[in-house]
Design brief:
By secondary structure, the chain is an alpha+beta fold. The chain has 12 helices and 26 strands. Helix content is 31%, strand content 29%. A hairpin with a 2-residue loop joins strand 20 and strand 21. The two termini are 36 Å apart.
């Protein structure tokens, strides 16, 4: 066990157990069954539904038997991102945890602290015989990262609490009390292929930071898919080429770090022109994003065959680090010229990033969207967006704008995973109690915050009348990226804070 030396031991024990179980979005059956086995072993009442959501109930501790129940909630799925050269099958393999100087991470992948730490907190509470607490209704939802579909499908009628502690925040010292609503918007552009002959090559954009499309959307980070569109358009201004495929990003709610395009050039001379332009564009992009993206890379790799002749062997002997190769002319099923033009037009003109800032809360992004996935599917190019807004009508206007453009290009837009905004409550007894407990523990007031990211509180508040909820959690940095890391001391302090909150909720 990599984390057995850390405190609180019970929390890190369950966190490590969770990380050993594959639990990416859409692959939650194993971890759902793990929760059911846990509840059975502890003789706790539970409900497991057909979507793999789990609710586990526990009676109040001594002196709290008749207290009003409290709901704790977090999600059991994680975003599965990895370094390009790291080998892992997220469907069958767990994570390789690492810890150094109190900072916890996973080798080559996302950590899943979002929201595995919530699951660990709740299991540690349920397993304890000594912690003081009211009756508990612990709710473990699935697929939060892909549209909150688990929370949307959950039957809340067995839940009697009207106090909810959501454990899905990543900034210690911040109490979240409002969030944006969102929807997944997939734009579909049909294509036609034609058999053509030319010189194939792969254009790649990489080295970007990426990040959460809500939390990091205002950090000035580049979107690899949008840079790909800009790059292809600049190429199209100086030479002709056909696209074979385009792809970039893995999750619509993660800012894509990499994107690529397979290109068919008509001649070798055009490939050389393209390589020269990419060198110029790499310098331009690095200058434009100098404050946030210092490692942007653009490359063009021709499909090549290695030459074996006396001349080339002599060259190789003089410079063994130089690969001697010849660019190959071949036939390929390329997208026709009209489709290539439409794809580039879409990538250049589709909206992306911040669309509006809040007039009411300083520094809060009000409306945004993120082109998180670009992929070439059978018979269509798919552009998948995470659209967010704290104003429902602005969210609708943005999806209408996407639909309008795609209709002109001969495509269409489909929506899924729509979830409501969590509106701010002016009167919140729970918030007041949590502020008081925080001030006693930390010696200063917490930050009361609204965020642009989605939180499941909005769905629960919509289903459960008069629900009073607050979201909080320990420090977790760079979520949804392989750089994700969690501070052990922050986990400990947040655990102690949670226990004090439960003490006062009598």
């Amino acid at each position: 066990m990599q984390l057995s030396h850390l405190e609180p031991k019970e929390v890190f024990y369950y966190f490590e157990e969770i990380c050993a179980i594959p639990h990416g979005s859409g692959n939650t059956r194993k971890i759902s069954d793990y929760l059911v086995r846990f509840a059975s072993e502890k003789n706790l009442r539970y409900i497991q539904d057909e979507w793999n959501n789990v609710i586990i109930f526990k009676n109040g501790s001594e002196g709290y038997e008749t207290s009003a129940p409290v709901m704790l909630q977090g999600h059991i799925d994680m975003v599965c991102e990895k370094e390009s050269d790291y080998q892992i099958d997220f469907l069958t393999e767990g994570l390789c945890l690492e810890e150094k100087d109190g900072i916890i991470s996973a080798r080559g992948t996302t950590l899943g602290g979002d929201d595995g730490i919530a699951v660990a907190y709740m299991l540690a509470l349920l397993a304890s015989d000594t912690i003081a607490h009211p009756p508990l209704e612990t709710v473990f939802t699935v697929d939060e990262e892909t549209g909150m579909t688990g929370a949307a499908a959950l039957d809340c009628s067995p839940l009697k609490s009207r106090i909810m502690l959501n454990l899905d925040s990543e900034d210690e010292g911040c109490l979240l009390v409002s969030c944006a609503g969102g929807v997944c918007a997939a734009a579909h552009l049909p294509y036609i292929r034609t058999e053509k002959e030319g010189f194939p090559a792969t254009l790649e954009i990489g080295g970007l930071l990426g990040g959460h499309s809500g939390v990091e959307i205002d950090k000035g980070r580049a979107n690899a898919n949008m840079l790909l569109g800009r790059t292809l358009y600049q190429l199209s201004k100086i030479l002709y080429f056909d696209l074979i495929s385009v792809q970039g990003g893995l999750k619509d709610n993660a800012i894509p770090r990499e994107a690529s395009a397979e290109i068919l050039f008509s001649c070798e001379k055009d490939m050389n022109k393209a390589a020269d332009l990419l060198s110029q564009l790499e310098r331009i992009y690095r200058r434009e994003y100098h404050a946030t993206e210092k490692q942007i890379t653009l490359s063009l790799t021709p499909e090549a065959s290695v030459l074996k002749s006396p001349d080339t062997e002599q060259q190789a002997a003089k410079n063994p680090d130089t690969e001697i190769s010849k660019q190959v002319r071949k036939k390929a099923a390329a997208l026709n010229g009209e489709t290539t033009e439409k794809i580039i037009t879409a990538l250049v003109t589709l909206p992306n990033g911040i669309q509006k800032m809040s007039n009411d809360i300083e520094g809060l992004v009000q409306t945004s969207l993120n082109l998180g996935i670009l992929e070439t599917r059978e018979n269509e190019i798919r552009f998948s967006f995470s659209v967010r807004s704290s104003i429902n009508t602005e969210k609708e206007e943005l999806t209408d704008r996407l639909a309008c453009l795609m209709e002109v290009l001969g495509g269409n837009v489909t929506l899924s995973g729509d979830y409501p905004a969590w509106e701010y409550k002016k009167e919140s007894p729970l918030r007041e109690q949590m502020v008081s407990v925080f001030e006693k523990q930390y010696g200063h007031a917490p930050v009361i915050q609204a965020i642009h990211a989605g939180v499941e509180c909005g769905l629960f508040a919509g289903k459960m009348e008069h629900l009073d909820c607050v979201s909080f959690g320990p420090d977790i940095k760079d979520i949804h990226t392989p750089n994700e890391r969690m501070e052990a001391e922050s986990v400990r302090r947040t655990w102690e804070y949670l226990l004090e909150i439960l003490k006062v909720l009598r």
